[in-house]
Design brief:
By secondary structure, this protein is mainly beta. 15% of the residues lie in helices and 41% in strands. It has a single domain, classed as Inosine monophosphate cyclohydrolase-like (Glutamine Phosphoribosylpyrophosphate, subunit 1, domain 1, 4-Layer Sandwich). Strand 12 and strand 13 form a beta hairpin.
C-alpha cells in the first residue's frame, strides 16, 4: 500500500486524479477528484456545486478560450450511485446506467480525449452505496502508447473494500511533452483521517503551481448521507 501524500508530492503533474476507497474507521465510502493545469485556460477554473454533484466553471469568463474539454460535470449522483469522472463522460455514464446499462457498457461509446498529441485518458469511477453495502468500479480509456488508432479499455471492480484503503487513478504518469498516459492498475493507497484531514492532506500535497481544484466526499455506508468539501485555488 502506497502513501497517497507521497505519491502526490513526488509527482509534479499527475494531471487529473480520482481516489476511491473506504475511510479508516470503515464507516464511510470516500472519493476525491482533483484537477491540475499547465495552461492559463486549464488553470482558469473552479468547482461549483450543482445538485448533488459538481461542475467546473471558468473563474474569469473573459479569459475562457476553448471550453470543450475543461467545462463539464465531474460528479453526478444517480440514486445510490455516485459517478466521478474527468470529463463529460460523467453524463454518458449517468445516462447509460439510468437506461439499465452497466458502468462498463455505458463507456463503450467513448474513447480517450481528442487532444493530440497527448490523447488524455478518460478516467471514471462509480460508487455503489446501499443498505450498508459498498463496492466501486474504476475505468480508464487510453490510446495505445500515443497511437490513436487503438483504444485500450480497462475496468477494475472492488467489492467490499477494506477500511483505510483506496485506489488512485490519474491521467498522466508524470509531466512531459507529450504527456505519457497512466499505466497499470489503479494504485493501492492509504485513506487516513476524517474528511477535513483527508482534504487538507490531498490539497497540500498537490503541486502548488499546477493544482486548480479539489472535491472530496465521505458517504455514510449505513445511511447514505454525505459530507462534501470543495477547495479552489482561484477564490
Amino acid at each position: 500500500m502506497l502513501h497517497l501524500e507521497q505519491e502526490l508530492r513526488n509527482n509534479e503533474y499527475p494531471g487529473r486524479g480520482i481516489v476511491i476507497g473506504r475511510s479508516a474507521d470503515g464507516k464511510s465510502a470516500v472519493t476525491a477528484y482533483f484537477i491540475m493545469g499547465r495552461s492559463s485556460n486549464s488553470r482558469n477554473r473552479v468547482f461549483v456545486t450543482e445538485g448533488e454533484g459538481i461542475r467546473t466553471e471558468s473563474f474569469d469568463p473573459s479569459k475562457l478560450e476553448d471550453p470543450s474539454l475543461i467545462i463539464y460535470s465531474p460528479v453526478r449522483v444517480l440514486g445510490s450511485r455516485t459517478i466521478v469522472t474527468n470529463g463529460d463522460q460523467t453524463d454518458t455514464v449517468y445516462e447509460g446506467m439510468d437506461k439499465g446499462l452497466t458502468f462498463e457498457q455505458s463507456l463503450r461509446s467513448r474513447e480517450f480525449e481528442p487532444d493530440a498529441p497527448n490523447y488524455t485518458p478518460r478516467i471514471s469511477g462509480v460508487m455503489y452505496v446501499e443498505g450498508g453495502e459498498y463496492s466501486y468500479e474504476m475505468s480508464i480509456l487510453k490510446s495505445n502508447g500515443g497511437d490513436p488508432g487503438c483504444c485500450i479499455r480497462n475496468t477494475f471492480s472492488y467489492e467490499n473494500p477494506k477500511a483505510g484503503e483506496g485506489r488512485f487513478l490519474h491521467t498522466y504518469l508524470h509531466d512531459g511533452n507529450p504527456l505519457p498516459s497512466f499505466e497499470g492498475e489503479p494504485k493501492c493507497v492509504e485513506v487516513r483521517g476524517d474528511i477535513d484531514c483527508f482534504t487538507e492532506m490531498v490539497w497540500n500535497a498537490l503541486n502548488q503551481d499546477n493544482k486548480v481544484s479539489l472535491f472530496v466526499r465521505f458517504i455514510d455506508i449505513e445511511t447514505g448521507k454525505y459530507e462534501t468539501r470543495i477547495v479552489n485555488k482561484n477564490q
